[in-house]
Amino acid sequence: MNRTLSSDRTSAGFLSHGPAGGGKTLIGHDRVAAWWLNLDRIGEEDWAGLEALLIDEELERADRFHFHRDREVYIAAHAICRGLLSYCLGEAPQSWRFSVEDHGKPELISPAGGPRVRVNISHTRGLAAVALTVDHDIGVDVEWLQRDAPTEKLAERVFAEPERKTLAAAPTASKIDTFLTFWTLKEAYVKAIGKGLSQPLDAFSFDLESLRIHFDDSLADDPERWHFERYRLSADHLMALAIRHPQPASLAVDTVPAPLDYLLELAAS
Fold first, then answer.
1. What is the pLDDT of residue 106?
2. In 3-state terms, what secondary structure has residue 224?
3. Band (220; pLDDT cuts 50, 70, 90)
4. Residue 52: which residues within 8 A CB-CB, separation 6 or more?
5. pLDDT number for residue 103
6. Would you say the C-alpha torsion 256, 232, 134, 80 has a positive or negative sign?
């Protein structure tokens, strides 16, 4: 499913389902919530509020970035993550803690007696995104389109043969778009399974029409247990989601711009 979402789409309808409406039903075994935020929406006066949502360790890491733009997108991503968790689960944004699993994947330490909440973060130049669900493996990846890259040379190194053929057949004007569509899907899958660089990217491939995944080794994974979505969030950004689920057809995915006003109100409270 290739969706186009406008960056000025209102999130008021989305918010009506949250704590203020009395029903925390945004995530569950069959529900996924994803928020994304274009940094162009953030005013200079808003950054202090977003920083207030982070814990000290995150602020210290943010201050270590060499480039200001990298610092800002890191802060935005982690503010969205903590805000979305609080929005869906009702705890204070600074209360959430993470452990680091094998291959370096962060995992939320879920509240005692509560469901196993799964979250994933991605950011690129000018945009951050977070995806959240219960129990199931989930991955999100975002990429910035306005770049020059030797797409077919890179594809020879990291893409499977069917993907390389699709890229070679793409018009010159859409090479980078096609390359990054494959890339976001592959990165979302790798982030979902948590294997990082140990997972060869050419061991599986995607069909962009059906958004189905194929594994060279039929025993490596079950394609019937995966659901993928791809989005063009703006003229400059692509996003992909990957969710492992026993019945992918039953999934409901809510993907909207992060409600900046809510995040700032949360910080103020």
1. 82
2. helix
3. confident
4. 267, 268
5. 66
6. negative
Give the DSSP H or E segment for 26: none
CA atoms within 13 A on the CB side of 191: 26
DSSP single-letter state for residue 60: H
Distance set, CA 172 to CA 16, 79, 179 (Å): 44, 38, 11
Average pLDDT over residues 186-206: 91
- Alpha-carbon span 102 to 85, nearest angstrom: 23
**Contact assessment for residue 26 and residue 262, using Cβ atoms and an 8 Å cutoff:** no
**What local confidence, expressed as pLDDT, does residue 7 receive?**
31
Would you say 30 and 128 are in contact if contact means Cβ atoms under 8 Å apart? Answer: no
CB 76 within 8 A of CB 82: no
Q: Do 50 and 93 meet the contact criterion of CB atoms below 8 Å apart?
A: no
The edge-to-edge listing of strands for the beta sheet with 117-124 is: 117-124, 127-134, 31-38, 252-257
Read off the amino acid at residue 145: L
Residues counted in the chain: 269
Q: Is the per-residue pLDDT at 9 higher than 60?
A: no
CA proximity to 137, closest of 26, 232, 24, 228: 228
Cβ burial, residue 251 (10 Å; 0-12/13-18/19+): middle
- Assess contact for 115 and 134: CB atoms under 8 A: yes
